[in-house]
Structures are given as structure tokens and as C-alpha cells.
Amino acid sequence: MMETWFAFSTAKVNWPATQRRVKKALDLARDFIRMGFHPGIEARTTAGWHSTPSTVTNKFRSSTEDAAVRNATIEQERREYVERILAAVNRLSSRERELIWTRWFDGEDRTDIEAYIMLNMTHSSYYRTRSSAFRKLAGGLGMEVYHEEESPA
């Protein structure tokens, strides 16, 4: 049964390029988590940051304030990116979700071979399930790569 969150036309999608894009997104989300960002686990000491300019020019008073705002913005962008990826992964079927979590998010550096052995899957069933998960993630996250339209001569 096809779910509406990833329903899209498959006719002009460049699947190899799309799968590379999804893999890069999963790798980046894993890297953000490894750098110390743990979604939903971090304790917050403040409710958030507010940039309050003190002059009409909207310039900050010091480079320290500017750096603090930049750091907070980067952290928020990373948090939102990881949360978006994880929300999409959580919409997958249980087997697809287990595969993605085992391969990318359980804290170990695993290759595809190690993951399918750990999941007790055959080579072909692993890659079939991974491909299905990647297609759903690409549709759900808007990461499809399309072939160039050929103009009639």
C-alpha cells in the first residue's frame, strides 16, 4: 500500500542520483548527532536566544554577540535538519526503519555488509529493502533528482 507522504511520479526520477542524495542526507544527520547533538536528549538552560539590536542600524554591539547568534542559528538549523530526517525515517515500515537505524543511527560505524549480516538478511533483500526505504525518504523529504527534459529536435 502506497502512503500519500511519498506518492510521486517515478517516470523521470534519476534513481541512482536520488539514492546518492538520500545516503548523503542520512550520513550528514548521523554526523550531526555524533558531533554532540542529540535530538530530544539535550538539557536546555534557556528557552532560546533573542537577538535584540541596540541601535537603529540593527548591528550587534560586539563580535561576541554576533558569534553567539551565529552559533545558536547553526545549532538550530542542525537540530531541525536531524529532526526532519528522523521524522521521515520513523514513517517507514518497521523493516525499513530497522535497516536505516542499524546502518546509520545506532552509534556504530557499520558498512552495508555488516548491517545486513546483523539484520540476518540476504544481500538482495537488504538492498531491495534499502532501495524501497530510500525511495520513500526521497519522496517524503523532497530529495528526488530528475532527469533533464530532452527537447524535441
Task: Give a concise summary.
With 153 residues, this protein is mainly alpha-helical. The protein is 56% helix and 0% strand.
Task: Give structural notes.
With about 150 residues, the chain is mainly alpha-helical. Helix 1 crosses helix 2 (about 65-90), helix 1 crosses helix 5 (about 125-140) and helix 3 (about 95-105) crosses helix 5 (about 125-140). The chain is about 55% helix and about 0% strand. It has helices at about 15-35, 65-90, 95-105, 110-120, 125-140. The radius of gyration is 20 Å and the shape is globular.
Strand content: under 5%
Would you identify the regions where 5 or more consecutive residues have pLDDT less than 50?
A: 40-45
How many angstroms does the end-to-end distance come to? 40 Å
Per DSSP E runs of 2 or more residues, the count of β-strands stands at 0
* Residues in helix, %: 55-70%
Radius of gyration: 20 Å
Mean pLDDT across the residues is 80
Structural shape: globular
Oligomeric state of the chains in view: single chain
Report the structural category: mainly alpha
Would you list the SSEs in sequence order as H and E? HHHHH
How many helical elements? 5
Largest sheet: none
